[in-house]
Specification:
Blueprint lengths: L2 H6 L3 H64 L1
Length: 76
Amino acid sequence: MDAKGIIKGLPWWVKWVAIPVIAVAVFGGLIASVVGFLIGLLFKLLIFAALIGGLVYVVRHFTSASSDSRDSRDGW
């Protein structure tokens, strides 16, 4: 007998309630650690992007300010 035949003969509540509950009980720690890792990675990527964006903003701000001051000195 194949797996489809075994599952086909079971009541609906075993297929849709009992089997998923057992799967979560067995693999719940693994699922939680994978989800936690992915959320942590996403958070770190967002922090990285924010820091890089801030660095680019600060560098452009100061380089444009220094080029403006050079232009005004040349005008004198």
